[in-house]
Write a structure and sequence with these properties.
With 125 residues, the chain is an all-beta fold. It has no helices and eleven strands. The strands form two sheets. Strands 2, 4, 5, 6, 9, 10 and 11 form a seven-stranded mixed β-sheet that branches. A hairpin with a 4-residue loop joins strand 7 and strand 8. The radius of gyration is 13 Å and the shape is globular.
Length: 125
């Protein structure tokens, strides 16, 4: 089992920045690919960004490219999502997810085995 705990959410003005953190425990963190998803009330959970276990590969949803950056520090069992130039439409609950490392990229939530409980991001206009 992998336990994931997100933090760093909050309220920010449009154009501002937030950095989300996800602390992992339970298994060898460096064996897992990590990702961030987002979900609005009544909507499906959507892919935001992902990073391979060694940080050698990152990929993003088109809507956040150039504004969001995913990173990880394996020695600290932590993955981050730096969010810049935030827009009101970025306001959602953000979830951290983990999957045992694979050779293929995926944006599908069903490919991730472990999830945190989410952190709320609110953006005022």
């Amino acid at each position: 089992q992998v336990q994931l705990v997100e933090s760093g959410g909050g309220l920010v003005q449009a154009g501002g920045s937030l950095r989300l953190s996800c602390a992992a425990s339970g298994r060898t963190f460096s064996n897992y690919d990590m990702a961030w998803f987002r979900q609005a009330p009544g909507r499906e959970r959507e892919f935001v960004a992902a990073i391979s276990r060694s940080s050698g590969s990152t990929y993003y949803a088109d809507s956040v490219k150039g504004r969001f950056t995913i990173s990880r520090v394996n020695a600290q069992n932590t993955v981050y999502l730096q969010m810049n130039s935030l827009k009101p439409e970025n306001a959602d609950v953000y979830f951290c997810a983990a999957r045992f490392t694979q050779s293929f990229r995926t944006t599908r939530l069903e490919d991730y085995s472990y999830w945190g409980q989410g952190t709320q991001v609110s953006v005022s206009a």
